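lol ok so funny story. i was supposed to be doing the assay writeup but got distracted and ended up predicting the structure for this chain instead. priorities right. anyway since i did it might as well share w the group, maybe its usefull for someone
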Amino acid sequence: MSMQKLLDIDPQQAAFRLEVGRQVSCRIKISNNSQEHVAFQVMTTNVHKYCFRPNAGVLKPGECLEITATMQALTEIPSNMACNDKFVIRSVVATPLHTAETAHELFSEGTLAFEECRLKVVCFKCISFSYNPGTMNAHMAGGSTTRPPLLTGTNYSYWKTKMKMFIMSMDEDAWRTVLTGWKRPVATDEKVSLEP
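and the output, tada:
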């Protein structure tokens, strides 16, 4: 019998769109799946490069929270976009008496067994170029934040990754809409029925 995880974490990787001279952020949604209060703590393998808001806390049963991970401003974009940084989200069952201020205590005691989820950090840079309709290679590669990558029918895996990054670069909420589906806004008025 498999045990249910205490927290659902979405997305499973932290994606940052790099810009010179600006701090950049991404959001990580955590949800408490259990019937218990759950304390969480967010850590990283590179403490000088990232900060988290909040970095610890306690979630009530069924409660969700968005964590903002912020990368410090870069003086230059690295030519090699490979990143070995990781985020670690620890979780453990807590009591209703625990608060965000006391959550750290649960992880420093060392006697409790806690769950750990590791998230890989992915970096991509904003690239803008002039599009030449006669040359499709740049467009097919998806190297632009103003034009989506082209699906040729033979490059689906590559296109899927580039399209996800393209949508996330526009807005993280846009990517959540892709995952969960669009919901039509409903307007109601007691006197008039509004129909599309």
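The first strand starts at residue 7 and ends at 10. Residues 12 and 119 are 6 Å apart (CA to CA).
back to the writeup now i swear
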